[in-house]
Amino acid sequence: MSGADEDMDHHDRESFGEEESVEGVTEGIGEEETVEGEMESIGEEESVEGVTEGIGEEETVEGVTEGIGEEETVEGEMEGIGEEETVEGEMEGIGEEETVEGVTEGIGEEETMEGEMESIVEEESVEGEMDSTREEETVDGEMESTGEEETVDGEMESTGEEETVDGEMESTGEEETVDGEMESTGEEETVDGEMESTGEEETVEGEMESTGEEETVEGEMESTGEEETVEGEMESTGEEETVDGEMESTGEEETVDGEMESTGEEETVDGEMESTGEEETVDGEMESTGEEETVEGEMESTGEEETVEGEMESTGEEETVEEDETLRYPCPKKEPKSPFPQKESKSPLLQKEPKSPLPQKEPKSQLPQKEPKSLLPQKESKSPLLQKEPKSLLPQKDRKFSPRNQR
Fold first, then answer.
1. According to the model, what pLDDT value does residue 367 have?
2. Which neighbouring-strand residues pair with 187?
3. Residue 51 in contact with residue 400, Cβ under 8 Å?
4. Residue 159 belongs to what H/E stretch?
5. Is there a domain that residue 35 lies in?
């Protein structure tokens, strides 16, 4: 993040790589993206707290937690995707791990940032609005998880073996623990303030956001992939979609004291849950589709599942909306997941297919995800960050931030 990244005003960020985390606006096309403001990515995961449009595997947003992995534990808010990713402020990294005390953008083995970090590797997280098209998307106040177990005292969304959050947590990896905010993608990362890592373990006391299999958004999210979750507005077309105040899960186990959405064997939520699967237990409202689901508050899940607290439009495996006009529409899961042009057109969100045009947000240019993934001139030069593949240019979010060079 230094230099160009710091330029990225923590608000406009576009990356193309494995992971991306932005405190402001992030647009990435890679595995994951995390943005505190607006984010648009096309890759494995995308998370945006502000506005994010991504077409990838997952998206995670702070105040929004989504995790997909073995275990995740967060005292405040946590969101992880991949092994694990957590960001307190803004983080952009492309590598195994990233840790920054202030603002760091690195592409290497490890990076730690106490302030802002943006990474592009395995995960993407955005605190604002997110539009993605990938496997999963989750938003804080909204949780969506798909894994073995998930436990959250506040809001949690995970998709993996286990996830535990005292506030909000979203992870996707082996383990994640955060005392403040943490996002990591690597072997291990520990931050008392802000951390984003992608690895085996992550511990954060505050907020954590990771994107492995999932996507989480705190504000508005539009995605087209496996799962999508948005706390405000979400449009997705994929397997699952979850929104805070709303939980949708389908997995092994999920437990949340506040809001949780997971998709795995079991799901437990203290808020609202709606699931349809083997077992379902809800103290408030729960709908799930999986092995087990328990929710104390409100939870809604549907197999692949999609849940949205505000507005969501998706076209993919499953779609669930808590507040949108189309809320809980047919959710043509697994079928075309037709465009679900909820919000507006939000484009067809051709998930899994091209996932490309997806001119969400604005043009957001066709984020041809998974395909070339080429160039991706992120933030400034940030160089192509040709992470995994070319991750073709993806000039995401034209307006938002031209390929990162804008910054």
1. 39
2. 200
3. yes
4. none
5. yes
Express each pLDDT in 260-292 by its tens digit. Answer: 343 333 333 333 333 333 333 333 333 333 333
Residue 66 is part of which domain span? 4-391
Give how many domains the chain has, as a whole number.
1
Compute φ and ψ for 7, nearest 5 degrees.
Answer: -55, -35
Q: What are the tens digits of pLDDT across the range 177-227?
A: 333 333 333 333 333 333 333 333 333 333 334 433 343 434 333 333 334
Which residue, 291, 271, 272, is CA-closest to 280?
A: 291
Residue 45 domain-assigned (yes or no): yes
Residues 6 or more apart whose Cβ sits within 8 Å of residue 335: none
How far is the C-alpha of 35 from the C-alpha of 27, rounded, in Å?
8
Confidence of residue 255 (pLDDT cuts 50, 70, 90): very low
Q: Residue length, the chain?
A: 407
Q: Per the structure block, which two tokens stand in for 376?
A: 């991706």
Residue 356 lies in a domain: yes
Report which secondary-structure segment, H or E, holds 188. strand 181-190
Tell whether 277 is covered by a domain.
yes
Distance, first Cα to last Cα, the chain: 11
- List 21's β-bridge partners, or say none: 34, 125
Which amino acid type is present at position 152?
A: V
Q: Where are the beta strands (DSSP E) in 62-106?
A: 67-68, 73-74, 79-81, 92-93, 97-100, 103-106
